[in-house]
Write a structure and sequence with these properties.
Two copies of one chain form a homodimer. With 216 residues, chain A is α+β, with helices and mostly antiparallel strands. Chain A is built from six helices and nine strands, in the order αββββββαααβααββ. The structure holds a DNA duplex (30 and 30 nucleotides).
DNA sequence: CGTCACATTGAACCTCTTCAAGCGCCGTGG
DNA sequence: CCACGGCGCTTGAAGAGGTTCAATGTGACG
């Protein structure tokens, strides 16, 4: 079903050690596929044959827990690559939190058939970056509810495009499952931050940073 | 300084996808160095030129927080390799929790000068394994105190050699900083598990699993 | 216009933290 | 050799913070 993509390969570019060439290579050997809200991208236990790059939208990576609850490990936004960290089969699941465009790339195509050195290193760097983000998130889970929410907002600001406004592409449940809180606590904390004039919420999915310094 | 080791290569084994060849290579190009209790192995911000493999003992990897407190991200035991996940400089610190023997290996030696494909992949697998453990730990931090402690015990059993007995190579403070609890809560939880006949504590650093099924 | 999913707000409960004291081990020094 | 002092572990009681249960509010869509 996806055989014709295979032949679209890099003609004359030699593999440099920078990441730029590979990022563009990913763009060239794949087409964006639309995913609906809450649509499954891959599930725990499935063969990890593909990598994914987000064109637009947002994805949650999570462990499914018993009876519908889940622990969200990470959010991926436009430009992010995910699906790493699996040897053979995926150990986590992932779904779109909002309608998204996502590029799907076969691992084997990326690696070349024999295994390309520079691409290996690139994947290693990406995985190492994931590791650092997972560790940072560990830190966040130790603090109180307010600090977790603030940390989340700062992460969104840092990774988003805008400086003083955040477009939340995920639900309160997603945020709560990410921060290890209940949706009630998340909502209450938002309200408290608004009362403290640190932020304002024109709508539940739009957050304006009124006093960015108050988030420290 | 490392020229003569290079020729010590596996004679007739072709670079298979298993790790065995590289693990033994690590053992051959390094000698164990003794570290004292609480001795610093590397600190946040230092150049990440080396990898480390534990011969015996235990190491804590952690983020230093303000005023002496710290978040322990992982423990490394005999056989484990650590120092991964850094591009250029270490983002975490690490210290021995107990007198330990640790092999120190230059990254560049491992990688060969041009970059060895299979070794790249091996490091990628190790980093991916670290990522999975960091994510598992994330999960653990969401549960209640008793589940965190039980999860810790199960991890120690799984990674240790013995089946029904655990030799704790780290202090209560290390455990508490790892689980995001206070030392009081850790101690209380141990006592409660002992009262419930799930474990027994002949000494503070020795735990006997009396009822392994009770840890589920 | 009604329904449904999601977000917000309130009050009681529960768990973990905090503060404080007591215990046991081991090394040092008289 | 014994006494002392320090460090780490244990245990107890009060307090804070988050969860739980419950009700209300609000926007999207048929």
């Amino acid at each position: 079903m996806k055989s014709k993509r295979q032949k679209t390969r890099q003609p004359s570019r030699r593999p440099s050690s920078t990441s730029a060439a590979y990022v563009s290579a990913i763009d060239q050997i794949s087409a964006p596929i639309p995913y609906a809200r809450n649509e499954v991208i891959f599930s725990q236990g499935e063969p990890a044959d593909y990598l994914y790059k987000i064109e637009s939208g947002c994805v949650r990576a999570f462990y499914p827990l018993d009876k519908g609850s889940r622990q969200v490990l990470a959010f991926y936004l436009a430009g992010d690559i995910f699906g790493l960290g699996a040897h053979d089969r995926h150990t986590i699941s992932s779904e779109a939190t909002t309608p998204s465009l996502i590029r799907v790339i076969r691992r084997k195509v990326l690696m070349g058939y024999g295994g390309d050195v520079a691409m290996s290193r690139h994947l290693l760097q990406l995985t190492a970056a994931e590791l650092r983000r997972a560790r940072d998130h560990n830190l966040r889970l130790l603090k109180g509810a307010q600090d977790r929410v603030i940390g989340f907002l700062r992460e969104m600001v840092q990774r988003g495009q805008t400086q003083d406004e955040i477009e939340l592409l995920m639900s309160r449940r997603d945020i709560a499952d990410y921060l290890g809180l209940t949706i009630e606590t998340v909502s209450r904390t938002f309200s408290r931050l608004e009362a403290a004039a640190a932020i304002s919420l024109p709508s539940p999915w739009r957050i304006v940073l009124r006093d960015p310094s108050a988030l420290n």
